Amino acid sequence: MTDDALIKAEAAAREAAVNTAAVQIALAAVELAKAAQQQPVVQQPACQHQHRPGRSTGEWLGIGCAVCVGGVGIAFASIAIAIGGISVAILALVLRSLWRDYQKGR
DSSP label at 61? Predict the structure, then answer.
């Protein structure tokens, strides 16, 4: 045998060894997948309470509208309280001025 033939034979042997290892890994993965599918599925016991379904889009829109209306109501109430406070302050100043004028007039 010539050196060229020997080198080619060694290369072919190495390639076969690598291919064999790759094939073995692939077969092991297939066997693992089969074993995973064959394992019995453990069922969780059913819950004793009733699950309520989630809110629908209409319900969320209703909640959003209620929050908006409530926010506007709170804003108007705050403005009314501010106007009432200013009115009371002006009334107190006017009454104080009248009281001083009345006291000077004596």
Answer: H
Q: Taking the chain, what is the end-to-end CA distance rounded to the nearest angstrom? A: 143
Per residue in 68-94, is it b (16+ CB within 10 Å) or e — as a string?
eeeeeeeeeeeeeeeeeeeeeeeeeee
What is the pTM (predicted TM-score) of this model? Answer: 0.43
Residue with tokens 């069922």: 43
Euclidean distance between CA atoms 49 and 29, whole angstroms: 41
Residue 91 has a pLDDT of 97
d(CA 75, CA 67): 12
Q: What angle do CA 46, 47, 50 make, to 5 degrees?
A: 125
